[in-house]
Amino acid sequence: MKVSGYILDSYGASDGANVQLIRNGAGTNLAVASNQDGYFEIENEDIKPNDTFRISFMGLKTQMKKASELQDVQIYLEESSEQLDEVIIVANIGKKPTKLKDLPSFKAKIWKEKWYTSPAFTLSLVALVTTGTIIYIIKKTK
What we know:
Blueprint: E1 2-9, E2 12-13, E3 18-23, E4 26-33, E5 39-43, E6 52-57, E7 60-66, E8 71-76, H1 106-112, H2 119-141
Parallel strand pairs: 1-8
Antiparallel strand pairs: 1-2, 1-5, 3-4, 3-6, 6-7
């Protein structure tokens, strides 16, 4: 059976939205991401008309649809601020991937340390002011 359609949000096509087959309450490895036009297509003989698909995208409400409903359809995903409760950005260049449970709490770190009193911030500010002053002097002397 083939399932296909377009995924849209309030800005237009949802590039990279996930469409995944769900069986027995768990996700399977049968999944696809929508292209830049929001189009997705999965064709597989194991798909049954009563199978459920999860359509999701970060920041948008997840929808569950039956395979029989996914025949060249347009799916509109609404915004959901609940899904953006906490976002962790991790830079781990040249090291083994870190497990999320090993990461320090980002929120706790921000409020415990006063970032604006750190030496790095002070040096950055001095460099910015110095660069701006030099550029101003050069412009005035020309």
